[in-house]
């Protein structure tokens, strides 16, 4: 039995509901949820004169789907309307809507040192638990501490809990979303922006998901193992790409010539073969002399970006143990994946759902932590 869908459009100006659609109102709907990134929304529907006034710029499009556990509607994600397309196809007029998830707010801001009260020498410099520094950057660059013209209306940043790994950054006009992703990749924190009510939005910086791996839970607790032999998935695809791998970094900090500070750091993958030490440099001259936290976290972030790429995609069955989206797994969860002779623990990084009048298709992407 297909789940029910409801799509509600809210005004970005006052948060009022402008329209409510059920799934049958659309020819097709496709949306994605991506951990620590910007998801996409696209939908096609028969044209009517009212649609252009409903789907205005940055209208909030909330997608709800019935819970497989309770049968009640629960929010999947919310998207800013950023595209409309009215066209004729034969004798039919169609209207296409495209959107970007609320994390796109972070992509709309740069790190402007002028909005950091502690900025020095033209840079915004912070060090400490990763969630704390991201909290401060968000508040200063688009939240209540930003200059008036740069504050997003009805937007807040939830308090941080100092749970992230130690990190340091010295920034000047870098994109805020890029910084969030960079810090999240080398720490144990995540981030998501959600609609609270109306047009009130909140950014939360905290770990997302639960460790449901076999290695963590067996034999004392339930675990999720995604395995075609267990019948909980189909169309498995395992990609392990090491063509662009680099695993020994020379992090070049400040200083002229031979006096330049160089920090060397390697990853464990060097020992995977006798020839696998692959060296590269990263420029971290923005780090101040003596700021070891920023130097080390920048070097670790560079190693993370160059690590081997492991990705497992599949279509869940939705009927067998471990195969039901939002019961057995959700975005951010760690799960065990088995395909052939390979078994590994990966994280649910993305879910893409395609909805048509008589069908729902779910595609799941799991990748390295």
Give keywords.
369 residues; mainly beta; Phage tail proteins - horseshoe like beta roll fold; 4 domains; 13-stranded mixed β-sheet; 3-stranded mixed β-sheet; 13% helix; 42% strand
What does it look like?
The protein has 369 residues and is mostly beta strands. It contains six helices and 21 strands. It has four domains: 5-101, Roll (Phage tail proteins - horseshoe like beta roll fold); 110-206; 214-240 and 310-367, no CATH class; 245-306. The strands form four sheets. Strands 1, 2, 3, 4, 5, 6, 7, 13, 14, 18, 19, 20 and 21 form a 13-stranded mixed sheet that branches. Strand 3 (28-34) and strand 4 (40-46) form a beta hairpin. The radius of gyration is 23 Å and the shape is globular.
Brief rundown of the structure:
The protein is built from six helices and 21 strands.
* Main sheet characteristics: 13 strands, mixed
Shape: globular
- How many β strands by DSSP? 21
Mean pLDDT: 94
Determine and state the CATH class of the largest domain.
Mainly Beta
N-C termini distance: 33 Å
Class inferred from helices and paired strands: mainly beta
Strand content: 35-45%
* Percent in helix: 10-25%
In the CATH classification, which architecture of the largest domain applies? Roll
* Number of domains as seen in the coordinates: 4
Rg, alpha carbons: 23 Å
* The CATH H-level homologous superfamily of the largest domain: Baseplate protein-like domain - beta roll fold
Number of helices: 6
Reading the helices and strands in chain order gives EEEEHEEEHEHEEHEEHEEEEEHEEEE
CATH topology of the largest domain: Phage tail proteins - horseshoe like beta roll fold
In terms of per-residue confidence, which ranges show pLDDT below 50 for 5 or more consecutive residues? none
């Amino acid at each position: 039995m297909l789940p029910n869908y409801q799509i509600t459009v809210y005004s970005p100006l006052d948060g009022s509901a402008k329209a409510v659609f059920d799934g049958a109102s659309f020819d097709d709907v496709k949306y994605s949820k991506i951990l620590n990134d910007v998801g996409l929304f696209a939908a096609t529907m028969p044209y009517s004169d009212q649609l252009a006034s409903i789907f205005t710029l940055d209208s909030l499009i909330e997608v709800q789907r019935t819970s497989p556990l309770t049968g009640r509607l629960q929010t999947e994600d919310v998207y800013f309307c950023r595209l409309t397309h009215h066209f004729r196809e034969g004798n039919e007029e169609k209207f296409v809507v495209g959107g970007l998830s609320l994390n796109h707010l972070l992509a709309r801001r740069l790190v402007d040192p002028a909005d950091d009260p502690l900025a020095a020498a033209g840079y915004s410099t912070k060090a400490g638990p990763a969630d704390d520094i991201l909290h401060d950057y968000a508040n200063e660059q688009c939240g209540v501490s930003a200059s008036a013209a740069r504050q997003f209306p009805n937007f807040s940043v939830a308090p941080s809990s100092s749970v992230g790994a130690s990190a340091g950054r010295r920034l000047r006009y870098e994109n805020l979303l890029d910084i969030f992703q960079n810090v999240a990749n080398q720490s144990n924190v995540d981030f998501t922006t959600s609609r609270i009510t109306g047009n009130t939005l909140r950014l939360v910086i905290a770990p997302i998901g639960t460790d449901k791996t076999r290695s963590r839970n067996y034999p004392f607790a339930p675990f999720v193992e995604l395995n075609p032999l267990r019948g909980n998935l189909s169309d498995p695809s395992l990609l392990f790409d090491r063509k662009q791998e680099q695993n020994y970094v020379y992090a070049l900090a400040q200083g002229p010539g031979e006096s330049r500070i160089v920090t060397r750091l390697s990853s464990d993958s060097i020992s995977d073969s006798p020839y696998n030490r692959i060296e590269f440099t990263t420029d971290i001259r923005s780090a101040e002399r003596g700021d070891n936290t920023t130097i080390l976290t920048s070097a670790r972030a560079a190693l993370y970006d160059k690590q081997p790429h492991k990705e497992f995609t599949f279509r869940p069955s939705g009927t067998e143990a471990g195969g039901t989206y939002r019961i057995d797994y959700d975005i951010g969860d760690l799960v065990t994946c088995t395909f052939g002779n390979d078994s590994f623990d990966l994280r649910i990084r993305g879910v893409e759902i395609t909805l048509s009048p008589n069908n729902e298709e779910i595609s799941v992407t799991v990748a390295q932590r």
